[in-house]
Every structure is written in C-alpha cells, then in structure tokens.
Design goal:
Structural class: alpha+beta
Shape: elongated
Low-confidence stretches: none
Order of helices and strands: EHEEEH
Number of strands: 4
Helix content: 10-25%
Largest sheet: 4 strands, antiparallel
Strand content: 35-45%
Oligomer: single chain
Radius of gyration: 14 Å
Distance between the termini: 9 Å
Length: about 70
C-alpha cells in the first residue's frame, strides 16, 4: 500500500506454433508475429517487485495486470 512502481509488458517473439488454436493464442496483432508476453513491475529504486509470465501473445498488458493482481 502506498508503493509506486513502473509496470511494463514485454513481447518475446517465437516461431509459429502448430495447430490453429495455438496460433491464434500466440499471435500478436500489434507486432504481427507469434510469441509470448511477460510483465514486470519495478520500483522507483530499481528493485524488481514482480515478474510474471508467460502469457499468450494475444494477451493485452491491461489484462495481464488484472490476472497478476499486482494492483489491488
């Protein structure tokens, strides 16, 4: 409570997975590539508070934040 930090998502490109279900989950329309997303939270003093993932490549940063429960 009362802690300030910086939150960012990171897309890591991978090769295209086999199967349509996996391809749809891994495809990121913003990057026009397949991959996985990770999310990091860093405090202002440089200390890592949280690192979460992998998430589906199609996962938006705001939904990753909701899933990790970093902000309450």
């Amino acid at each position: 409570k009362g802690t300030v930090g910086l939150i960012d998502g990171c897309f890591v490109q991978t090769s295209r997975p086999s199967g349509n279900i996996h391809q749809n989950a891994a495809f990121n329309g913003h990057h026009h590539a397949h991959g996985m997303n990770f999310q990091g939270v860093v405090l202002l003093n440089g200390m890592i508070l949280s690192f979460a993932g992998p998430f589906a490549g199609a996962q938006h940063d705001s939904s990753m934040l909701t899933l990790t429960n970093v902000v309450s």
